[in-house]
Design brief:
5 helices
């Protein structure tokens, strides 16, 4: 998103606005009701962000190779998978090439696949299992937890969060981080909470069907490499997800957790520990994944989460300085069937964060939706919304054309309802923060630039300009 450029002769305000997400591509990844798990990484080291996915119901794993423009080629990873529920990458054997780690929910095995590079090709070979003694493995992370130069693995399973320390050659020593005989470890996040140079862990545990003892816990790594446990919050509500980040810009790492009811709580870290939870929203039912990322480029961490039961992905814009404060949850225009996992990365290399969302799908296959972040109204993708874009949409001739659901982002549908009408223009001008004068200049420019022989396009512009909706919104047109 290149918001520093001039638009209609006027500079935009210094604030950067959250924009639209439009479909970049869809990847069929497994059988219907599958809900693949995702991982974003430059797997082939060619400078763009690829995707890894694991298909739980299909017993498959894939590498989706990005061509640099957000188009993906799917490569199946050959292996023996048993309901894989998570997939990550990292250089396990220290050869400078990313390998793949897979969590198999049904068998309880955590396995790694060594990658060999042949030019642009990647060949993966299954290696001895990291663990064969776990139960219901649901989440993994690959990270150098002990800062010894090699990549370790952390895995969440029923009742335990385990660390597998890499000896440096792909062999691992197990260690228990969190043990909870009543609860399942549902999600976890890694960060250095106390800024001592050692990575710590936050875990959320939930007790299925017992409605008690759900917790948000921290495991602080001490100088000996062991972890000191603390329970930061207990609840009777089912906790599903967790993320961390410095949300108030005070130099300390905070926690945000998501509960099945739709509530997101923030736990602000202060000098003496974490404060009581701050309720951020109640509108994200069954938040299977929460991410912390600077989605609008203003230097502050926003929140983006999936709502499994409502089919929405929503953004909470960070509005705090020296306090935790977020906007209300703003759903993006697209709807999904049971959105499950999500990652944020710059898939098309234009400098802003896009998202990939996995969902059950509705045509016989689960899907990975890769969504491009685009300034509302910027149909030619030049980073600006100006008269050139208005020329393009009116020339397309789909303004209130009476044909149901035939419009796309490039032909004027900016609110995701499949139609091009006044509401799309309202949305663009609102989110672009235009002045009335700038809008009037843009519309005048459209009349000047349109070929006068294109009567349908001119008619569409004049029809819109004369609508009561346009005249009654002061920032749309100058009287």
């Amino acid at each position: 998103m290149r918001m520093s450029k001039k638009l209609c002769g006027e500079s935009l305000e210094s604030k950067r606005y959250l924009t639209n997400f439009i479909n970049m591509t869809q990847i069929h990844s497994g059988p219907v009701d599958d809900r693949p798990t995702l991982h974003a990484t430059d797997f082939d080291n060619d400078g763009d962000v690829d995707l890894l996915s694991a298909s739980y119901r299909g017993n498959k794993a894939y590498w989706h190779e990005n061509d640099g423009n957000g188009n993906f080629d799917k490569h199946e990873i050959e292996g023996e998978f048993s309901k894989p529920l998570d997939i990550k990458s990292g250089d396990i054997n220290g050869d400078g090439i990313q390998d793949v780690v897979v969590a198999n929910f049904e068998s309880g095995h955590v396995e790694w696949y060594q990658t060999t590079a042949f030019g642009d090709q990647r060949i993966l070979a299954r290696k001895p299992s990291i663990s064969t003694e776990m139960t219901d493995v649901r989440r993994i992370e690959v990270v150098d937890i002990d800062a010894d130069g090699d990549m370790d693995v952390i895995a969440a399973q029923r009742n335990y969060l385990r660390l597998f320390r890499n000896r440096g050659d792909g062999d691992f020593d197990p260690q228990v981080l969190v043990a909870d005989v009543k609860n399942n470890v549902y999600d976890f996040a890694i960060s250095d909470f106390n800024h001592d140079g050692r990575l710590d862990v936050t875990a959320v545990t939930t007790c299925a069907n017992c409605f008690s003892n759900d917790t948000v816990r921290t495991a602080m790594q001490n100088s000996s490499g062991s972890f000191d446990l603390a329970t930061e919050y207990s609840s009777s509500a089912d906790v599903r997800s967790v993320t961390t980040g410095d949300f108030d810009a005070d130099g300390r790492t905070d926690i945000v957790s998501g509960f099945e009811s739709g509530t997101l709580f923030a736990f602000r870290q202060r000098l003496r520990g974490f404060e009581d939870p701050i309720r951020l929203t109640d509108e994200m039912n069954v938040p299977m994944r929460i991410l912390a990322a600077d989605m609008n480029g203003d230097g502050r961490l926003d929140l983006i989460g999936t709502s499994f039961s409502t089919g929405r992905v929503s953004i909470l814009e960070n509005q705090g300085t020296n306090e935790i404060a977020f906007s209300s949850a703003r759903p993006i225009d697209q709807r999904f069937i049971e959105p499950y996992d999500m990652v944020a990365a710059d898939f098309d290399g234009d400098g802003d964060l896009d998202i990939a969302v996995s969902s059950s799908g509705d045509t016989g296959a689960s899907k990975i939706h890769v969504l491009e972040q685009r300034l509302v109204g910027d149909v030619n993708d030049d980073g600006r919304f100006n008269s050139s874009d208005l020329v393009a949409i009116f020339t397309a001739g789909e303004y209130e054309d009476g044909i149901a659901k035939n419009s796309t982002f490039e032909t004027g549908d900016w609110n995701g309802d499949g139609e091009f009408n006044t509401q799309d223009l309202v949305k663009a001008f609102q989110e672009g923060a235009y002045s009335a004068a700038a809008v009037a200049d843009a519309v005048d420019s459209v009349f000047q630039q349109l070929n006068t022989s294109d009567k349908s396009a001119n008619s569409s512009v004049r029809e819109w300009q004369n609508t009561s909706e346009a005249r009654t919104i002061p920032f749309l047109l100058a009287e």
